[in-house]
Target: Phenylacetaldoxime dehydratase family protein
Amino acid sequence: MESAIDTHLQRPRTLSRRVPDEYVPPFPIWVARAEQDVTRVAMGWFGVQYRGEEHRDEGWATLRAIVDGFALEDGPGGWDVTHHVDAQGWDTLVVVGYWRDAATSQQWFARPEVAGWWDAPDRLTANVGVFREILSPGVDRFETLYPFTEGLPGVGGVLDGVSDQVTEHAYWGAMRDRIPRSQTDRMSPAGRLHAAGDPARGGRVVVRGHENVALIRSGQDWTDCPAEERELYLGAIEPALHDAMDFLRDKGQRLGCYSNRYVRGVDLDGTPLDTTYAISYWRSLDLLERWAESHPSHLNVFVAFVSRARHVPSLRLYHEVSVVDADSQYYEYVNCHPGTGLLRDAERPGA
Model:
């Protein structure tokens, strides 16, 4: 058993963990490992939104154009596609791409085929909206968690391996304790979101992030669950999760949640997969922790799962959490409604 924080990232602690050094977790868990040459990863959330079946084909064609670009040199090392209907009733397709090295992602974004597509006048005259939310956390600013060691989803899929069993899990506060920067930094937020452009008028709007925005991807995969486990998960556990995700989507703003998307995995033909995950942006890690530890909407999910966990051993749960500095965030929305992503909470010029 070892620390979730890799050896080369360990520092003398000035901030203590939430548990004593002799703590032993009750069950095994693992984290993704990166070689020492990895200093900063990149994750890009590329979205397409449309409203009405008459725009469905254009929406999917736009999504496929984004995915086609991934095949260019310096494209992401891994990606997946999801669908959800947002709070305003817009169908939204999101493909996330992950890069092991942020510098490689910057080379891809600068390619004429990629930059030209995003900057093209066609983006402003289309019947669909598009957005991209790009985060490049340093390796000391994110953590992962997996109760399995093969087929890692998300950022773990582009890294280099898996740890031995780790000690920092199965207690409130473990999420923070797994982030290397937490050894010496509270990672408190500073500043506000600012929009260059007016979301209410549409067009192209760029949002500038503030220090230490937190992003969590929290996933569920019941692909390999036999019938009884599937029925239990979908009938008794997933509804509580769905309610919590809807709460954050609709009422999370007052708790510090900027955006929450609860999405279903799909293939490029739109066929649903047996996977879901939440993409949730928060003003700070502190506020995310406070919701997770004390709010009834999350505690209901916790109780629903813990009380039935031994009956769904084939269910794969995981998450990744990043706390990102301001200069490593880029959010762009084109023809999107003003409730999209981080637009809702971004301060407007002159507001």
